[in-house]
Amino acid sequence: MSPSPKAVYRPIGLLGGVLAGALSGAVFKQIWKRVADEDDAPGALQSEYRMREVVLAAAIQGALFGATKALIDRAGARGFTKVTGNWPGD
Predict the structure, then answer these.
(1) Mean pLDDT throughout 55-82?
(2) Taking 80 as the threshold, does the pLDDT of residue 2 lie above it?
(3) How far apart, in whole angstroms, are the C-alpha atoms of residue 52 and residue 61?
(4) Where would I find the beta strands (DSSP E) of the chain?
(5) Short-list 80, 65, 59, CA closest to 8
(6) Closest Cα to residue 30, out of 61, 71, 69?
(7) Residue 58 belongs to some domain of the structure
(8) Which end of the chain, N or C, is less packed with Cβ atoms under 10 Å?
(9) How far apart are the C-alpha atoms of 64 and 31, rounded to whole Å?
(10) pLDDT of residue 89
(11) pLDDT band, very low/low/confident/very high, at 82 (cuts 50, 70, 90)
(12) How far apart are the C-alpha atoms of 81 and 64, rounded to whole Å?
């Protein structure tokens, strides 16, 4: 019995997640530099920032990561389907 498309795709999906994290992190850093005129976004434990700034930075970073991961996952699934004829999520 051959492995399921989902199992075969799993390492590709994991690599896509790592790529999405790196790419979205770099994009977020550039956006934050331009918007806030600071090199780094505020961290949750940095007392010099207000709650609003910390939550806004986290929300933007999370949204960018989610969108980038979905884009990379979808492109990977389409490429996988072209090569194997099977959609990896089914």
Answers:
(1) 93
(2) no
(3) 14
(4) none
(5) 80
(6) 61
(7) yes
(8) N
(9) 10
(10) 79
(11) very high
(12) 26
Task: Give the residue numbers spanning the domain of 37.
Answer: 22-77
Domain assignment present for 1 = no
Range 6-26 burial, b when 16+ CB lie within 10 A, else e: eeebeeebeebbeebeebbee
Question: pTM for this one?
Answer: 0.81
85 lies in some domain: no
- From CA 81, how far away is CA 26, in angstroms rounded? 29
Is the pLDDT confidence value at 4 over 90? no
Assign 19 a pLDDT band (cuts: 50, 70, 90). very high
3 falls within a domain? no
Count of structural domains within the chain: 1
| Structure token pair of residue 24 | 């979205």
Distance CA 52, CA 44 (A): 11
